[in-house]
From TrEMBL:
This is SDR family oxidoreductase. Belongs to the short-chain dehydrogenases/reductases (SDR) family. It comes from the Bacteria. PANTHER family: 3-OXOACYL-[ACYL-CARRIER-PROTEIN] REDUCTASE FABG (PTHR42760:SF115), SHORT-CHAIN DEHYDROGENASES/REDUCTASES FAMILY MEMBER (PTHR42760). It comes from Heyndrickxia acidicola. SUPFAM superfamilies: NAD(P)-binding Rossmann-fold domains. Keywords: Oxidoreductase. InterPro entries: NAD(P)-bd_dom_sf (IPR036291), Sc_DH/Rdtase_CS (IPR020904), SDR_fam (IPR002347).
Length: 256
């Protein structure tokens, strides 16, 4: 059964792989044998993740790109193709959040968040999925969504809307790319202490989250690795596409 999750010989591109959650999933893919390209705006953080992966016996390299810039993504794609010859897995894990109340929200801030969380994913999929088709590689695209994508959360209006859009993009592309042998799914993480949500986690907020989470705790970034590896594996999840996989401690099943 362990062969089901063996990613030896595969190359994974981790967009936002220098973030807390993105890096944890990238490391999980590397542990299963995948060669990993860590892509992010902050190349120093990306290089730190590369060092951790290589220290553990894996193979990785850092690449600089901004998901809101077509030219930088195309440049990164060309560099990664020269490095690895192509890729089989695309992990989309960039994210930007804001606590600005709805009536105080300016369109510059709205556009900024949408540029990263939604438009950036669309651009990334256009560039990297097209290359996968040209490379004649079947594979897996894994988008990172949020619990706020299905039940909007207070204080994070724009973020919630962007992630709801991401779910729709995921399911549309699952249909669009299936004939090319490319599966597209999303992971819906629950509450993990990542950079983009620390600023809204005051004591009252934490208490509210715990009341709504049956497992009564935050998630650890490493707990996303299993879902990422499963969705990345063409053997383990070969008939899975257009699916939103919850890793949320039961948050999505809670009502009153």
């Amino acid at each position: 059964m362990t062969d089901l999750f063996d990613l030896t010989g595969k190359t994974a591109v981790a967009i936002g792989g220098n973030s807390v959650l993105g890096s944890a999933m990238a490391k999980g893919l590397a542990q299963q044998g995948a060669k990993v390209a860590i892509v992010g705006r902050n190349v120093e953080k990306a290089e730190e993740v590369v060092k951790e992966i290589t220290a553990a016996g894996g193979e990785a390299k850092s690449f600089q790109a901004d998901v809101s810039s077509v030219s930088s993504l195309e440049k990164a794609a060309d560099e990664i193709e020269k490095w690895s010859g192509g890729w089989d897995i695309l992990l989309n894990a960039p994210g930007k959040n804001s606590t600005t109340p709805f009536f105080d929200l300016g369109m510059n801030e709205w556009d900024d968040i949408m540029e990263v969380n939604l438009k950036g994913i669309v651009i990334t999929c256009q560039i990297f999925a097209r290359k996968m088709i040209e490379q004649e590689r079947k594979g897996s695209i894994i988008n990172i969504s949020s619990v706020s994508s299905t039940i909007p959360l207070s204080r994070v209006f724009t973020y919630s809307v962007s992630k709801a859009g991401l779910n729709s993009v995921t399911q549309f592309l699952a249909r669009e790319l299936a004939p090319n042998g490319i599966r597209v799914n999303a992971i819906i993480p629950g509450f993990f202490p990542a950079e983009q949500n620390r600023k809204i986690l005051d004591e009252e907020r934490i208490e509210s989250i715990m009341r709504h989470t049956p497992m009564d705790r935050f998630g650890n970034p490493e707990e996303l690795q299993g879902a990422a590896v499963w969705l990345a594996s063409e053997k383990a999840s070969s008939f899975v596409t257009g699916t939103l996989v919850r890793v949320d401690g039961g948050f999505g099943s809670m009502t009153i």
